[in-house]
Amino acid sequence: MNMKTESMGSLKEIVASESADKHSGVRRVVAVALALWLGLVFLLGAQGAFVRSADTPPLPIFFGFAIPLVAFFAAYFGWSAFRAFVLGADLRLGAAIQAWRFAGLGFLALYAHGVLPGLFALPAGLGDIAIGVTAPWIALSLIRRPAFAASHRYVTWNILGIIDLVVAVGLGTMSSGFLRGLTGNVTTTPMSHLPLVLIPAYFVPFFIMLHFTALSQARQLACSGKSTPAQDI
User: Fold this and answer.
1) In Å, what is the CA distance from 97 to each residue of 13, 60, 102, 135, 175?
2) What is the pLDDT of residues 91-117, one digit of tens each?
3) Which of 64, 126, 228, 230 is the most buried (most CB within 10 A)?
4) Whole-structure pTM over 0.85, yes or no?
């Protein structure tokens, strides 16, 4: 009986070790992918690859925004190890990273100086500020009470965060100049140049990925009835 128990214990240890190794491998892949993605956006931005004529839709920026999200969702739904990584990510860290969206104040400053149109800068800036200001409170709530991850308030905050980003992308597209007369002579053309192009082509899809990660874990917790989300990243 003791030998059987020891054998079962060893088997569990082996399975746990293999799972940890796989998780660590996915983590390295994700880290490399994020670094390469950022480097690629920098390279393309430096070469002016996101710039287009004022009378055409900003398709280069749209592709810069959409392709990373397509890759992320394809990996999530098609690669079980990556899905497990997403469902095991630290929600506290994800919420804390969202605090950087307080930098949306920069949109208001650029609007005030006539660099960006109000149709885009005001809602995008104010929405980002709202999420950024509340992010530390969300992170603190997760630290104090892990069950907060399954709450309606947490889910609503993440949904609003996604809506803010999607609306910003939509208004940015409408204000890019191809719809004549909508914003006058001030358009979102500066968003196609470095360093601003990093926002739609890197940070916006990255923040959406973080929100999706949070919503996926919240759904998992709600379905399982557990009160403590995964804390390893």
Assistant:
1) 34, 26, 10, 8, 28
2) 999 999 999 999 999 999 999 999 999
3) 64
4) yes
